[in-house]
Amino acid sequence: MGSAAIGVLVVEDEEFVRAGLRAILDAEAGITVVGEAGDGAQVLGLVRRLRPDVLLMGMPAVGPVAATRHVLASDHPPRVLILTTFGNDSRVYDALRAGAAGFLLKRARPVEIVRAVRTVAAGESLLFPAAVRDLVATRGRCGGDGLRGAGLTEREAAILRLMARGLSNAEMAAELMLGLETVQTHVGDVLVKVGARDRPQAVLTAYESGFIDPHRPV
Question: What's the structural domain count of the chain?
Fold first, then answer.
């Protein structure tokens, strides 16, 4: 994106929430709301026309899961950030599985909303460790071979656990005393080995397989 502003498409069926999000984001330097909609059925057409960098999407009538899948299959897919009232909403889990970069609670403070948009626009994921553990635990889908067949090295296993803690690449580099490029390489290798397209999918796979116990802090 270079120095260009981060383009955000806001899709939210509650008009006052949508207006508030636009006001918060448009007030920030380097962020521009390129469009908005109150109906999830408009998402794909708007993404194709406006080509936003980030899709900030509430729980539209067509459902965030279907919308996420359709958007990410488009020619110029944005990063998808789900906006939810409840962190334990099962649709959040399914949207992450479908490729959403993260989720944010509607009651988040303006500074948190701005930070979330910047985070996903930069290619990072936005995961709240406690909320993700709750999501996985409520689905009752934990257990398996613990990714033994994935062939993760000791370092890669450590990287995956740090992902589950919600650490960014820079934070992982500091934690492990490694270079940022080295961490980025390890992250890419982890995604390939666990068969995930992105960090949220890798973290969910780690929980589902039993590699990480959702009933214990990471």
Answer: 2
- pLDDT tens digits, one per residue of 100-127: 888 888 888 999 999 999 999 988 888 7
Percentage of the chain lying above the pLDDT 90 cut = 40
Q: What is the pLDDT of residue 171?
A: 92
Whether 218 maps to a domain, the answer reads no
Range of the domain at 57: 6-126
Q: What DSSP assignment string belongs to the chain?
A: -TTSPEEEEEE-S-HHHHHHHHHHHHTSTTEEEEEEES-GGGHHHHHHHH--SEEEE---TT-HHHHHHHHHTSSSPPEEEEEES-TT-HHHHHHHHHT--EEEETT--HHHHHHHHHHHHTT--B--HHHHHHHHHHHT---SSTTGGGT--HHHHHHHHHHHTT--HHHHHHHHT--HHHHHHHHHHHHHHHT-SSHHHHHHHHHHTTSS-TTS--
What pTM did the predictor assign? 0.80
